[in-house]
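Cross-check.
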Amino acid sequence: MIRKMSANIVALCAAGLIFSATVLVQTAAAQSDSLVQSAQITFVMAEEIAMTKVGGGRVMKIELERDRGQLVYEVEIRHDGRKHEVKINAVNGEIIKFKSKRGG
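Predicted model, tokenized:
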């Protein structure tokens, strides 16, 4: 009897964790959709802006996020043995920050 109750409790806890994880994923997806809809610059445009700044290379990552209330793309590019990070205003396409370091 106690084993059956323990198994039921474990099953309920597992179901609760799965439900919580699903809600978190759905919330993150909704927030992401909201960010994309707010951006005037697309992912492709952000990539082109960053590649032009760096002069070529391979895009390793593009993220759209809010940084201090500002909607920005953070683009990471590898080129000629360097790691370049370009932060771009997602509304007007202006380069906000550029960082480059060897290796990485």
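The CA atoms of residues 31 and 65 lie 10 Å apart. Residues 40-104 form a domain with the Nuclear Transport Factor 2; Chain: A, fold (CATH 3.10.450.40). Passed to J.P. for a second look.
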